[in-house]
Design goal:
two-stranded antiparallel ribbon; two-stranded antiparallel sheet; alpha+beta; 2 domains; about 40% helix; about 90 residues
């Protein structure tokens, strides 16, 4: 498997400033095969009845890092991988 960070670096160099970071991440996800087996969870959405809150920084590792402005991406393995039709 290709390291996703390596793919992102190559795409960023190739496309330069003409392409935003989200687009580069989506393309690198496709190249690295992450979207077939894994899905990116939206941390702003309600997850299993709980909402991620930055007010729980004393007990919540993720919230502490989010509060610092760090980028956190959380993936969940899909129950059945999607089939990609070319």
């Amino acid at each position: 498997m290709i390291a996703k960070s390596d793919v992102e670096n190559i795409l960023a160099k190739y496309f330069g400033e003409t392409t935003d970071r989200d687009t580069i991440q989506r393309v690198s996800d496709e190249i690295a095969g992450l979207t077939q087996e894994w899905e990116l969870l939206d941390l702003s959405a309600d997850l299993m009845g709980f909402t991620l809150s930055v007010t729980c920084t004393d007990i919540c590792y993720l919230a502490e890092h989010i509060e610092r402005g760090e980028e956190i991406r959380l993936f969940r393995r899909r129950k059945t991988p999607e089939k990609i039709i070319a």
